[in-house]
Amino acid sequence: MSARAPGESRVKRPSRSTGASGGRGRPTTRGRGRTRLSEHSPFALGFFAAAGALLAWWLGGLILSISPILILVVVAAFLAAGLNPVVEWLGSRGLKRSWSLLVVIVLVLAAIALFLVALVPVITDQVRAIIDNAPGWFEQLRENRSVQRLEERFDLIQRAQEIVEKGSFGSQVFGGVVGVGMAVLSAVANAFIVIVLTLYFLASLHTIKGAAYRLAPASKRERVENLGDRIIANVGAYVSGAFVVATAAGLSSLIFLMIVGLGEYAVALAAVVALLDVIPMIGATIGAVIVTAIGFATDPKIGLACLIFYVIYQQIENYVIYPKVMSRSVDIPGSLIVIAALIGAALLGVVGALLAIPTAAAVLMVVREVVVPKLDRR
Q1: 3-state SS of the chain?
Q2: pTM of full prediction above 0.70
Q3: With a cut of 50, which residues of the chain have pLDDT below it?
Q4: Which of 80, 192, 302, 303 is the most exposed place for a label (fewest CB within 10 A)?
Q5: Number of domains composing the chain
Q6: pLDDT given at position 252
Q7: Is residue 183 part of a domain?
Q8: Which structural domain, as residue segments, surrounds residue 194?
Q9: What is the pLDDT of residue 146?
C-alpha cells in the first residue's frame, strides 16, 4: 500500500462516468429547464419552431393589412406635434392650456372651412382651365425647334396627347369614372380621419405622454421624460417650420403670378407650389418646373420671368428662410437628411419623405443621448 499524505481526504472522488449514485449512467444537464429540453424529440422542437414561424407570419399579415390606418395615425400624431408649439406659445402668454387648445382647434377648423368654401372652387375652376388649355399648349410646343428635335427622336408630345385625348390616363391611374369617385371619397375620408385624430392627439397629448413615460423604470423615468419631451418639441418645431416655409413659398408664388400675368391660374399654381414645397429636397423644384412650364406655354416672356424668379427664390429659401425657421428643430447632417428622405420615400412615398427627417432627428438624438454615453462608459 502506498503511503497517504497527512491531511489527505479519505473520501473517494467519483469518476466523470459515475452518476449521482456512484454507478455509470448518462450525464445530466444542469438546470431543470435544460434537462426537459434535452428530453424533447427533434419532431417536437421542429413543430414548435414551425408554429412560432406561422404565428409570426400571421401577425405580420395583420399588421400589413392595417398599415394604411397606421400611416394615418402616424401622420395625425406628427401634425399634433406640429400644432403643439402654438398651444405652448399661447400658454406662455398666460392663457390656460384648455383655452389654448380651444383657440388652436377653432383656428384649425376655421382654416379648413375657409379653404373648402373660398379656395376649393377657385382651384377647381383654374385646374379645369389648365386642362382645357393643355391641347393648345401642346401645339405651341410643337412649333419650338428644340422640342421638334426631341419629338422626332422620342415622339413624347404625340404620346402625351394621345393619352389626354383618349382619356386612358384616368382609367390607368384610378380605374375609370368609378375609380375616380372612389379615390376622391377615400381621400376625403382619410383627411377627415387625420383631422379628427390630430385634434384628439393635440387635446390629450399630456395624458398620452404621461401614460407612455410610466412604462419606463422608475429609476430612469425622469431621463426618459426629458428625452421624450425634447424629441416631441423638435418634431413639432420641424412640422410647424415646414408648413411655415411652404406657406411662404405659396404666398410669394401667388403674388408673383398675379403680377407677371398668370392671374388666371395663380391660386391653383400657388397651392401646388405650397403643397409640393413640403416634400423635402425635390418638392420645391417640381413645383417650380410645373409653373415655369405653364409660363412658357402661355408666353415665353412669362416663362423666362418664372424661371428667373424661382431660381432666385429657391436660393433665398435654401440659405435664408429654411435655416432660420429650422435652426431650432433639426440638428442633423445634410447627408443624413438626404438618406433619410430617400429611404422614407422608398418605404411610404410622399408621406414617408415628409416624416423621414423628424424621425431621423429623433433617432439621432436617442443615439447621442443614450447609446453613445453607454459606449463611453465601457
Answers
A1: CCCCCCCCCCCCCCCCCECCCCCECCCCCCCHHHHHHHHCCHHHHHHHHHHHHHHHHHHHHHHHHCHHHHHHHHHHHHHHHHHHHHHHHHHHCCCCHHHHHHHHHHHHHHHHHHHHHHHHHHHHHHHHHHHHHHHHHHHHHHHCHHHHHHHHHHCHHHHHHHHHHHCHHHHHHHCHHHHHHHHHHHHHHHHHHHHHHHHHHHHCHHHHHHHHHCCCCHHHHHHHHHHHHHHHHHHHHHHHHHHHHHHHHHHHHHHHHHHHCCHHHHHHHHHHHHHHHCCCCCHHHHHHHHHHHHHHHHCHHHHHHHHHHHHHHHHHHHHHHHHHHHCCCCCCCHHHHHHHHHHHHHHHHHHHHHHHHHHHHHHHHHHHHHHHHHHHHC
A2: no
A3: 1-3, 5, 7-9, 11, 15-23, 25-35, 37-38, 167-180
A4: 192
A5: 1
A6: 92
A7: yes
A8: 65-203
A9: 61
